[in-house]
Amino acid sequence: MRYRSYSWKPTFIVKTTTMTLLKYFLFFVAIVTMSTACGTSRKTPKNKDTPIHDELSRYPLNFMRSEYLSDVLDRAKKEKKLVFIDLYADWCAPCKVMDEELYMDEDFAATMNEHFISYKVDVEKGNGSNLNRIFSVNVLPTLLFLDADGNVLQREDGALSHSAFLNMAANAIQLAQ
Length: 177
Hints:
By secondary structure, the chain is an alpha+beta fold. 47% of the residues lie in helices and 14% in strands.
C-alpha cells in the first residue's frame, strides 16, 4: 500500500505567515494614523508676537488678555472697576452657548465693559489650572465677580440666561459699595 503525501504543512505555514504579516501591517497603519492625528490636534505654533487669547478679539465684550489674575486685579484697581471671570473649557457646550448668546450681544457687552474688567480663562490651559484649584471649580462654566482685591462677591456654577447674568452683575455692584 502506498501512502499519499499531503502538503498541508506548507499551505498552513503560508496562510499563517500571510495572516501574521497582514496583522502587523494593519497594526502599523493604525499606529501611523493615530500618531498623525494626535500630532495635528489643535496645536498652534508658539509665536511670541501672537497676543495671548487672540480668539478673544471676536467678542464685543472686552476680555482682558493676561496670563495672570494679578494683572487683571491691578487694572481693576486702577480703573476702579470690579472683575468678572469666566472659567471655561474648549469642550464645554454651555460655555459655547454663553459665548454666542451673551458675550456677542452688543448691549450686554457695553454694560459689562462699563462696570467690569472681564477675564476669560480656560481651566485646562496655562494658569487656568491654578485658578481652577483656587476657586474650586467643579462645574463649567463657573462665573465669578470679584472686587479689585480678589474677594468673591458673586459666584454661579453653570450657564446663565441674559437676565439672570445681569441680575448677578447688579448684585455684585451692590455688594461692592
